[in-house]
């Protein structure tokens, strides 16, 4: 991926983050909030590129970050408190403790042993949303392809009920709901792939 392509993806992720309750929660209010969203998007896209976890739809309007990980993967999403840049440029110090506490609960819902796929981010730009655009289906098919290829489960969570319903329509199972401290409900979802077909 060249510099211009990377910048295009960061711009799109920045825009999508502004619609997601979890990122609106962690990005400190006041001042130049756009810059904070941009810093967070840059961090996420760079981490995704480093881990070969970036999925981009054919029309470049859908972007997802899908990590293959496990509980013991030390390099995976280290606690935000250890990422000084994020604390200073995105969350603010007051916010950081609350975020870590929430993250600890969320992480406990994921497998404590073995490998799994984790959908850290999935967004589709407004003009490509809807059943007739096929962008969501194209990306879901890639998630499922990887889950089947690796024969490991796929996990995701969302605080947007309509997104939880879309996940379920795509074949995810809703296995847990949590009253998030923000007042929202957080939906925890997983997909268990079918056994791999032997040719």
From TrEMBL:
This is N-acetyltransferase domain-containing protein. It comes from Salegentibacter salinarum.
């Amino acid at each position: 991926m060249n510099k211009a392509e990377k910048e295009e993806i960061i711009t799109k992720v920045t825009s999508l983050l502004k619609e997601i309750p979890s990122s609106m929660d962690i990005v400190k209010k006041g001042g130049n909030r756009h810059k904070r969203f941009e810093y967070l998007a840059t961090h996420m896209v760079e981490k995704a590129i480093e881990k070969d976890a970036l999925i981009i739809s054919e029309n470049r309007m859908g972007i997802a970050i899908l990590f293959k990980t496990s509980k013991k993967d030390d390099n995976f999403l280290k606690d935000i408190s250890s990422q000084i840049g994020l604390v200073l440029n995105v969350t603010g110090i007051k916010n950081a403790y609350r975020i870590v506490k929430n993250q600890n609960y969320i992480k406990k819902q994921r497998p404590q042993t073995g490998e799994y796929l984790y959908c850290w981010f999935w967004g589709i730009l407004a003009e490509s949303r809807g059943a007739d655009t096929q962008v969501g289906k194209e990306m879901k098919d890639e998630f499922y392809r990887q889950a089947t290829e690796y024969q490991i489960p796929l996990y995701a969570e969302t605080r947007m009920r309509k997104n939880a319903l879309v996940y379920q329509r795509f074949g995810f199972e809703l296995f847990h709901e949590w009253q998030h401290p923000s007042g929202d409900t957080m939906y925890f979802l997983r997909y268990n792939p079918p056994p791999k077909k032997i040719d």
